Structure formats: structure tokens, C-alpha cells
Amino acid sequence: MNFSTLLNQGKAEKRRHSRKACDKNTFFASRDRLYEGLVKNISFGGVFVESTKAFSEGDMLTLAVPCASNDEGLKLKEPFNDEDIKMKGKIIWKNQDGFGMEFIKAK
């Protein structure tokens, strides 16, 4: 099963996938500008990014996901290494610490 297949599964629940702590620096882009933040947790469906940048719910971003594998050895992409994965997503909530981004499935 590949990453895209996992993203497409189960749309009924609000949180379909368990989150894993990450704590790694990342870069993300919006409207041709590059920003830096800290991925605090991640799942197959989305990510929480700690950031001081002001975004709005519904904003679209491209994020360099720095967590290619988790503690249980589950790999998020092939080949199985720790290179960044570029994912597109939409900000679905925000607070003073950062934002939650839902990954958009590949078409």
C-alpha cells in the first residue's frame, strides 16, 4: 500500500489516523513565499506546524514533510529513507502556536 492510498482511506471520521510526535524543522510555501516552522505531530492525514506566521483557515500550502518514518518503522514513502516529502494541504484550523493542515490527496 502506498502513501496516496493511505491518504484516500476513510473520510467519515474527523481524525482518521493516529498522530505521531515529530519535532523537526520544516519549510513550507504559500503564494510564492517560503516560510519555516516546526512539525510537532504528523499523521497520514495531516500535520500540526508550529509557526508564528499568520495564515487563514482555507489557505493552501506546500509543505516539506521531514518525517519519512515513525518509531514503529512505518514508512511514509518509497524508497525507504528520510528525505523530505512535498505535500499539498489546506489549513483547517489555527491557534496562537501554529496551524493544523490537512493533506490533499493526489489526483
Low-confidence stretches: 1-13, 70-75, 77-81
- The span between the termini is 16 Å
Rg (C-alpha, Å): 13 Å
Q: Quote the CATH topology.
A: Thrombin, subunit H
**Overall mean confidence score, pLDDT:** 76
SSE sequence, one letter per element: HEEEEEE
CATH architecture: Beta Barrel
Number of helices, counting only DSSP H or I runs of 4 residues or more: 1
What is the count of structural domains? 1
Task: Output the structural class.
Answer: mainly beta
Placed side by side, the strands forming the largest sheet appear as 1-2-3-6-5-4
> Which percent bin holds the helix content?
under 10%
Strand content: over 45%
What quaternary form is this? single chain
Q: Mind summarizing the main beta sheet?
A: 6 strands, antiparallel, barrel
The CATH class, by name, is Mainly Beta
Shape descriptor reads: globular
